[in-house]
């Protein structure tokens, strides 16, 4: 989703199992593959905080998500968890993942 809608092309990606992630993140984050992690200026953000940072970076209509920053972090993380667990029912499930185009491959840190 982010890869497709990040019009600036500034957001970079790394699988949590990659050497890059293992070198930059605490081991407990690289073993928990069910959460979103954002590393920005050597600060680690997870769950809803990570979503807020990505929405802010993407700009445009995605900034509407930032309205949820008024909620206590514990509540916004609960909402994140519910959406994370229900994402296939909400967004559907594909049989395979799309491969990045040659120009998109440079956005992956391995």
The major pleated sheet works out as:
2 strands, antiparallel
Distinct helical segment count = 6
* Low-confidence residue ranges: none
Strand content bin = 5-15%
Could you explain how this protein is built, in words?
- The model has no long low-confidence stretch (mean pLDDT about 90).
- The chain has a two-stranded antiparallel ribbon with strand order 1-2.
- The longest helix has 19 residues.
- Strand 1 and strand 2 form a beta hairpin.
- It is mainly α.
- It has six helices and two strands.
- The radius of gyration is 14 Å and the shape is globular.
- About 45% of the residues lie in helices and about 5% in strands.
Task: Describe what is shown at a glance.
This protein has 110 residues and is mostly helical.
Highlighted features:
110 residues, 2 strands, 45% helix, mainly alpha
List the helices and strands and how they pair.
Layout: H1 2-5, H2 19-24, H3 27-31, E1 37-40, E2 43-46, H4 47-58, H5 73-91, H6 102-105
Antiparallel strand pairs: 1-2
